[in-house]
Each structure stands twice: as C-alpha cells, then as structure tokens.
C-alpha cells in the first residue's frame, strides 16, 4: 500500500502590515512544494482577520481583495479545531504559517496551534514572541553574552509624559545618529534614522504610533558610516545549523521599507552570497547566529541579522547582532532560501526539511508530562 500523503496546511495573508509579503512567500512555496509527497491545503487570512479555505483562499492568493465565497462564519479557532481532528477529512498533519509580523510571527498564532495540538513549522510561542520584541530579544542576547549596539528602551507613556526627560535619558547613553524603532514590528515600518536632537521628536512620535514600547539604538559605525549588513540562515531544532553568511547592500541610506521591497532594477538593493569576509569573521558570525537562535529558544528556522562597522583609524571592524527573524521572507529569491541554496539545500528540500522539523518537534513534545 502506498504511504499516506502528509496533509500540509499553508497559511498565508494575515492582519499584519506584511500581508502582501506573506502572499509572495506563499505563492513561491505552493509552486515548489512536492505534491507527490504532500496533500496541500491552502488557508488564507484576510487583512481584516477572516480565515478562508479552498477557493476563497486561492482567490486571496491571486490578489482578489473580495473573495467570492463567503466564509465569514469561519474563525481561526474553528479552522484550527477542524485541522486538529485527524479522523475528519479536515485534519492536517502539519501547518506552515507563512505569515510575517504581528499575529503571525509573534507567538499568537503559535499559541493557537499549541492549544489545538497541531504540528507547525518554526518557533514556538516563546521563541516567536521573543524574536518579535526587539526589547525582549536584546535581553535574551545580553544574557547570552552576545555583542550588540548600545540601546535604551522607553514606553510611549514615558515619552508622552516627559519628552525632555526622555531625551536626556537617550542622550546620556547614546550618541547620534540613533535609530528609533517600535519594539514589535518588521519590514522597517516606523523606523527612523535620527542624526540630531532636532529630528528626535518626530521619530519618537512615529514609533510611538506603532507600539507602546520604543527601542532607541546607537547607529552602528557612528556619523556618516553605512555599516555592512550581514545575514545568516539557521535551520534545525535542538542542534541548529548555520548557512554561509550573506550580505545586503541597501539601495538607500539604510535598509528601509522602500529599499527592501519597492525599489527595482538598477536602484534595487543587492545581495552578495557569500559575503566577502575573512575566515575568522565568517566563523564568528555563524557561531553567533546559532547562539542567538538558542538564546531566544527558536525552532525550525530563523534568519539572524548583523551589522558590521568597518575598521577605521586603527580600530578593528566591529560585528554586532542586530536582530533575529523567526519567519523571514520565504520567496524562492528571498535571502533565507538563497543562503541555504548556497549552502547546498535547494528550495523544495528546504520546505521538506522544515516540515520534518515541525513533526520532530511535535513528537518530542509528546514526551512532556503536563501533570504528575
Ligand atoms: N543600530 C543601527 N545602526 C545602523 N543601522 C541600523 C541600526 N538599526 C537598524 N538599522 C538599519 O535599519 C534597518 C531595519 O532595522 P531592523 O532593526 O532590522 O528592523 P526590522 O525588524 O524592521 O527589519 C536595518 O536593516 C539597518 O539598515
Ligand atoms: Mg531587519
């Protein structure tokens, strides 16, 4: 008898600002996933948070804003419950949440899968939320002894109550330029580079409109320096492995939303794989990527991003950890798959591996007792 095919749910869209990026990643996966091995079930989430199945999900993927089939009664909970029912025709063996940002990458949907006892690709609740929150992430990295650029975290209530005091606090610890970021977001939304006090308030107000927590970081390399941006793809559960190191050369002063997704042709940001580094630098960066993955208790996959200030005036080059992304862009030409491609794992193999890791992690968890 032929082995039963695994039923894999591909979940895409979502309420986050990265809805469109998610659709791009999902289209790539659906094109490449091995249909001989898997029965693929498409699951879409609209920008309003409605869950869609079958033809309505495909319509969302195809870019139709108003899916023809009305499934407004469906919520994430009912679909997750159906997915968790192996006896029913609706059962899923594993879900791949191809979601970026809020409600997809931040532990919330992972919590839903945990409750429904469904295997899923990627980090669990803690790894996802720690990787999403730049303030919590830095605390984890700090505890693991990983190098970072100096930073200050402020609540927007603190900023709004006393901007002068907040400014003093920032300037006591950091030197301009600084980067002002909402703690929980992605794709550079709400992030500003601030070169002097005159521009600080606008940047703080912008970040405060996106999150209750604001992270202010010292610009790596100092005034007038564009640091190198290095990225490593990590794959695995308890024994994660690191890819070769890649480099992004942003098309703008920093890697903002436009430089990431909107500039095309000659103006495009460029990636270089592998990055030109010394053997020692490469070794150090790959080890740091794995340490960062472990520090946040990640699983499955993550892309770890670094900033490198070039050597100057006798000072050696400085490499710091910037952030970890637990559900990085996943089109066939995104950095994460390209880094694995250059490390000997092609795109469809990578999808296979992530599904295996999801099942492995789910099995491992069965060994846990939840009461005595
Ligand atoms: N401390 C910093 N020094 C220099 N450049 C930075 C710093 N922080 C962020 N950047 C620039 O801003 C971009 C986006 O910041 P990042 O923290 O990666 O946010 P996101 O999670 O939205 O990708 C980086 O890729 C880099 O170009
Ligand atoms: Mg980033």
UniProtKB/TrEMBL annotation:
Q: Where does ATP bind?
A: 134, 179-181, 187-188, 217-229, 322-323
Q: Where does Mg(2+) 1 bind?
A: 305, 323
**Which reaction equation describes what this protein catalyses?**
2 D-alanine + ATP = D-alanyl-D-alanine + ADP + phosphate + H(+)
Cofactor notes: Binds 2 magnesium or manganese ions per subunit.
Cofactor(s) for this UniProt protein: Mg(2+); Mn(2+)
The residues responsible for catalysis, as annotated, are: 18, 187, 334
Cite a GO CC annotation.
cytosol
What is the designated name of this protein?
D-alanine--D-alanine ligase
UniProt record similarity statement = Belongs to the D-alanine--D-alanine ligase family.
Q: What does this protein do?
A: Cell wall formation.
